Amino acid sequence: MKSRWIACLVTLQVTFALYLLAFLSIHSFTMGQYQWSESESANSAVTALYALAKQRLPVALEVKFAEFPVAIIEKHGKDLTVSGEPSRTGTPASTSAPVAASGSAAPVPAPVVATKSTLNTSKIVKEATFMAAADDLFGLLTDPQRIPSWTRAPAESAAKADTPYSLFGGGVKGRYLSLMPGKEIVQTWALTSPSWPSEHEATLTTTFEQSSDSTKVTFTLAGVPKGMEDELERNIDGYYIRGLKSIGYVQLIVSPAYTQPRRVSRKSRSHVPENKGDVADNKAATAVAIAVVVLAAAFCLPYFTYSPISLRSFAK
């Protein structure tokens, strides 16, 4: 039913176009028959202008009218697909060849070439230190058999320059630009997301710096669209760094080195000035201690002066 309605609509459009072409073609035959009238009070200048218009105006109008069928078809007939040949066989040819109008032709505008707009971008850097060898971490990020262990999703990777790769089940795609085992990975990086600009690619550079017992990994993502820095920084931290931690690669937190306090010799202590408040507190504590000792001695002294007999009678 729907196809019948479409066929009827196309037939009506074609019929309308043919009727319009026929009308224009008939008008092109009769356009040479113009009615001219001139005022009797016209002077010689008006008469000369009248004669010039009567001679050249019909030719110019014929040229302009002859352009109408082509312009109409080009403008409104592009959606008609009746046959591969143009349907103009029923249009009679003009009896008079069109003559180019005097003066220069109107300039044809040049086609507009779509240019790719410049995208404002920035760069983000994330660092992490793992208790693992650089070669081991390099293999985890490039080996297609080991990548799913930390991404928890299918991956495609040939680990060769100028080859495509796919991570997180197609969530991240790109191509390897250069690979230095245990040293550096340079790759294009594009996020499969509606928020990511179409046909835009960033560049992810991953470097490995191995020390005696750990390896520092630096993720540098250049070409990040403005406004997406926080989101992509969370993605690098959440999917890459935490993904490696989830399979047992411990991330080290680098803290400032511990400095052992310097021992002060007795000789040097004598030159250190003491706090006056501390000196006063020490003197007060000493005075209290002496007072307590004196009171205790005064209380116990009578017991030491009595004889044993006196002590027994005192006890009774």
Taking the alpha carbons of the first and last residues, their distance comes to 135 Å
Work out the helicity level: 40-55%
**What order do the strands of the largest sheet run in, or round the barrel if closed?**
2-3-4-5-6-7-1-8
Outline: elongated
Global Rg: 50 Å
CATH superfamily of the domain at 121-252: START domain
Strand percentage, roughly? 15-25%
CATH class of the domain at 121-252: Alpha Beta
Number of helices: 9
Low-confidence stretches: 81-89, 255-259
Category from helices, strands and their pairing:
alpha+beta
Strands, count:
8
CATH architecture group name of the domain at 121-252: 2-Layer Sandwich
Mean pLDDT equals 74
CATH topology of the domain at 121-252: Alpha-D-Glucose-1,6-Bisphosphate, Chain A, domain 4
Largest sheet: 8 strands, antiparallel
Helix-strand string: HHHEHHEEEEEEHEHHH
Domain Activator of Hsp90 ATPase homologue 1/2-like C-terminal: 132-246
Biased composition (Low complexity): 89-104
Transmembrane segments: 284-306
InterPro entries: ASHA1/2-like_C, START-like_dom_sf
Blueprint (SSEs and pairs):
Elements: H1 2-30, H2 44-66, H3 68-76, E1 121-130, H4 134-142, H5 147-151, E2 156-157, E3 164-167, E4 172-180, E5 184-191, E6 202-210, E7 215-225, H6 229-245, E8 251-252, H7 266-269, H8 276-305, H9 308-315
Antiparallel strand pairs: 1-7, 1-8, 2-3, 3-4, 4-5, 5-6, 6-7
Would you kindly provide a written description of the structure presented here, covering whatever features stand out?
It is elongated and about 165 Å long. Helix content is 42%, strand content 17%. The model is unreliable at 81-89 and 255-259 (pLDDT under 50). With 316 residues, the protein is of the alpha+beta class. It has helices at 2-30, 44-66, 68-76, 134-142, 147-151, 229-245, 266-269, 276-305, 308-315; strands spanning 121-130, 156-157, 164-167, 172-180, 184-191, 202-210, 215-225, 251-252. Strand 2 and strand 3 (164-167) form a beta hairpin. An eight-stranded antiparallel β-sheet has the order 2-3-4-5-6-7-1-8. Among the domains are: 2-32 and 48-76, no CATH class; 121-252, Alpha-D-Glucose-1,6-Bisphosphate, Chain A, domain 4 (2-Layer Sandwich). It comes from Boletus reticuloceps. InterPro entries: ASHA1/2-like_C, START-like_dom_sf. Residues 81-104 are annotated as: Disordered.
